[in-house]
Design brief:
The complex is a heterodimer of chains A (about 110) and B (about 120).
Chain A: E1 4-7, E2 10-13, E3 19-25, E4 33-38, E5 45-49, E6 53-54, E7 62-67, E8 70-75, E9 85-90, E10 103-107
Chain B: E1 3-7, E2 10-12, E3 18-25, E4 33-39, E5 45-51, E6 58-60, E7 68-73, E8 78-83, E9 92-104, E10 107-115, E11 119-123
Parallel strand pairs in B: 2-11
Antiparallel strand pairs in B: 1-3, 3-8, 4-5, 4-9, 5-6, 7-8, 9-10, 9-11
Classes of the chains: A mainly beta (about 110), B mainly beta (about 120).
């Protein structure tokens, strides 16, 4: 099974900061990657699919890049509503449709 | 409004069974594949199972294979997860999620674009 490893596991940042989260696949997955945001007690929300395509309605401060094994999620100007946990997920080879372990973005 | 609503969670003893349901509305349910995803308390997301729109293709995570059965009734716009031989480690919030696809170039890309709010399953004596 393909393993997805996110880094860091958590980070502290201030409103207005640029934040980058990395997701690494244990083998090449082309661009078959999605990013989700989850707030406490809420369901996950799709942010990006196909590694870099922004889901409708998601603010443009979110962007995704990468292909193969290394991917990044960038928040260009962190807003208060962006403090949450972010997950990557691969769709290249399944089952299973593996998630990364998550990256918690906290207020500094 | 596109919506998924899970139900059927609760407290069950180890070794017991539970059937989760997911009611879909606001979209053509029969056109979409569906998933179950779970989240143990304080833990990350774990994909559990997938079923294609016609039920012809079904996948399970190794952790539930042989114990859980996914099914759907397109006439009732409903998705199900029959959970047997439950263990303490199955304790989690269970989400149903719609599987969307996007065709670009020569490839189909997949992602879960609509999620329910989840139903809580607690396995404990």
């Amino acid at each position: 099974a393909i393993r997805m490893t996110q880094s860091p596991s958590s980070l502290s940042a201030s409103t207005g900061d640029r934040v980058t989260i990395t997701c690494r696949a244990s083998q090449g997955i082309s661009s078959y990657l999605a990013w989700y945001q989850q707030k406490p007690g809420k369901a996950p929300k799709l942010l990006i699919y196909a590694a870099s395509t922004l889901q409708s309605g998601v603010p443009s401060r979110f962007s995704g890049s990468g292909s193969g094994t290394d991917f990044t999620l960038t928040i260009s100007c962190l807003q208060s509503e962006d403090f949450a946990t972010y997950y990557c997920q691969q769709y290249y080879s399944y089952p299973p449709r593996t998630f990364g372990q998550g990256t918690k973005v906290e207020i500094k | 409004e596109v919506q998924l609503v899970e139900s059927g969670g609760g407290l069950v003893q180890p070794g017991g069974s539970l059937r989760l349901s997911c009611a879909a509305s606001g979209f053509t349910f029969s056109s979409y594949s569906m998933n179950w995803v779970r989240q143990a308390p304080g833990k990350g997301l774990e994909w559990v199972s997938y079923i294609s729109s016609s039920s012809s293709t079904i996948y399970y995570a190794d952790s539930v294979k042989g114990r859980f059965t996914i099914s759907r009734d397109n006439a009732k716009n409903s998705l199900y997860l029959q959970m047997n031989s439950l263990r303490a480690e199955d304790t989690a919030v269970y989400y149903c999620a719609r599987d969307a696809e996007w065709f670009s170039g020569d490839y189909y890309y997949y992602y879960m674009d609509v999620w329910g709010k989840g139903t809580t399953v607690t396995v404990s004596s």
